[in-house]
Amino acid sequence: MNPVLGSFEELVLLAVCGLGDEAYAPSIQRRIEEGAGRDASMGAIYTALDRLQQKGYLRSRLGSATPVKGGRRKRYYDVTGTGMSALSAANSIRRSLTSLIEGGLTT
Hints:
This protein has four helices and two strands, in the order αααββα. By secondary structure, it is an alpha+beta fold. Strands 1-2 form a two-stranded antiparallel sheet.
């Protein structure tokens, strides 16, 4: 069985998916803050990215240096097949649990 996917980790994975080739820590942070309306510190982003890589849900690569003198290289992230499976499983669980209460939801 795959390791459990936490709710913040799920947001990070979804942000990486949505950003495609532009998925690096600051853009992931912005996507979560804008899309989920949730504050996300850079420390929390980096911690989640590290955990997701350890679980095999993400892989990273270094891009070229920024054009400013002494510019650092950006680390970009991609979701692996295992990460996509984890997102799919989380979505399936959510749908299953939601269906249990649909009769009780009000409109």
